[in-house]
Amino acid sequence: MTSHIIPLALPKGTEKVCELCQKRAYLQCARCRVTYYCDAEHQHSDWIGIHKRICQLLIPIRTPSLFSMQRAGRIENLLKTKELIEICRLVAESKLSEGKHEEAVPAAQACLRCSVDVYGPNTVQLVPAYLLLADANMGMGNLALVAELMSQAEWAVLKSPECGYAVHHRLHRSMGCLHTATGHFEAALFHFANDIYFASEEYGLDSTVTCGGYFLMADVFVKQGEPAIVHSLYKEVAETWHSHLAKLLQSHIQNLQKNPDTTEPAFDKGQQVEVGKILRSILEFEQDETRKEPAQVALVAHSLAMLSYLGGDVTRVSHLPRSAEVNIRLTRSHVQLVNFPLRDCNSHNK
């Protein structure tokens, strides 16, 4: 993408800073001409991470004009900047769910920068951006930077006691992940317990968001060698996702019956990757257990089959364990799955 940059020529005494590292810039984006970089490597990283999505959107926001200094212009720029925040947030979340942590950094940084422009420094509205940036650096192993970002997020929350359950849930989840990565397991369990509480208050006990906390807590107990607790937590996660996917599948099949030419997958690709990792981890654990329950293995395998089908990846369905075709009765959640063989999945996509 080096063709998208030009050497920076500025009047003497005028300096610009790099979009990624805030060091002195020597290059300029040739398309928008309002974004600057210290070198071609940072330009390329930013282009892949977020800039190609927002390049032209930055022009009116970063170009001073008589209109932009008037009240109507300021309001318009504020709305455009809020739109940028949402775009950057969605891109960062998508890349994180796909495990592309390095690519998520520019989007998370842009989200944070725009959030500061709109809401000011040290405000609770910056917390989602702090956590996105922390999650990206967590995946890259930059734990010192993660701790710093988490401190800033925690301080913003402490100053805003009125902030909602969703913010607290996300903060505790990220804190739990940090303590898990640093080996402080008791602290991690404390934060995951709080994560589950706040998530259940915001989304409900049966929510897939809430069950994410159970899965992360189970990972801690895996490290502590507590298979019985792990099995119990995994069962909760597996049943929640199976129920959710079964409902999505039923709705998708109904849509196919109304519109047989539909080719769009019914499940977001990034989320499919993330949920697939969760379910495969549970399946691997249950298959290795000496006290494994065939119904639990079948439940998880069937969930993976539904996930692949909903994501449009039918080729992976045939490679799942055949136990996914058994009839399963879920007495705890009162959900009954009857006669849904994998071959029926394939027939819908022919």
Strand order of the largest sheet: 1-2-3
Structural class: mainly alpha
Instruction: Point out poorly predicted stretches.
Output: 317-350
Could you give the count of β-strands?
5
Kindly give the count of domains.
Answer: 4
- The percent range for helix content is 55-70%
What is the makeup of the main sheet? 3 strands, antiparallel
How far apart, in Å, are the first and last alpha carbons? 39 Å
Computed over alpha carbons, the radius of gyration is: 23 Å
- Per DSSP, the total helix count is 13
Oligomer: single chain
What is the mean pLDDT? 85
**SSE run:** EEEHHHHHHHHHHHHEEH
Overall 3D geometry? Answer: globular
Approximate strand percentage? under 5%
Helix-strand blueprint:
Layout: E1 5-7, E2 27-29, E3 36-37, H1 40-54, H2 58-62, H3 71-97, H4 101-119, H5 127-139, H6 143-158, H7 165-181, H8 185-203, H9 208-223, H10 227-258, H11 269-288, H12 294-310, E4 328-330, E5 335-337, H13 342-348
Antiparallel strand pairs: 1-2, 2-3, 4-5
Helix pairs in contact: 1-3, 1-4, 3-4, 3-5, 3-11, 4-5, 5-6, 5-7, 6-7, 7-8, 8-9, 9-10, 10-12, 11-12
Could you characterize what this model shows?
With 350 residues, the chain is mainly alpha-helical. The chain folds into 4 domains: 66 residues; 63 residues, no CATH class; 62 residues; 112 residues, no CATH class. The protein has 13 helices and 5 strands. Strands 1-2-3 form a 3-stranded antiparallel sheet. The chain has a two-stranded antiparallel sheet with strand order 4-5. A hairpin with a 4-residue loop joins strand 4 and strand 5. Helix 3 packs parallel to helix 11, helix 4 packs antiparallel against helix 5 and helix 11 runs antiparallel to helix 12. The longest helix is centred in the C-terminal third of the chain and has 32 residues. The two termini are 39 Å apart. Keywords: Metal-binding, Zinc, Zinc-finger. Pfam families: zf-MYND. This is Zinc finger, MYND-type containing 12.
